[in-house]
User: Fold this.
Amino acid sequence: PRKVPVFCNTGCNHGNVREKLGNCDGVCMGTAFKKDGVFNGRVDKERVREFMEIVADIRKDCKEKSIKKNL
Assistant:
């Protein structure tokens, strides 16, 4: 069987990314990266950094679970 990746296309943010990535393969980001979460604002480097720290932690958890599963 062919696996088709599933992405969360809207509504993902710092508070729910762990849940979203628990149910899909990736997320599309937009307003959550903008200064003060404003649609037409500039991308806020600190918001991106904080988000990617959360994602790195999620990836680490997934890798550890995969290693334990294969033991």
In short: The beta strands are 7-8, 26-27. The radius of gyration is 14 Å.
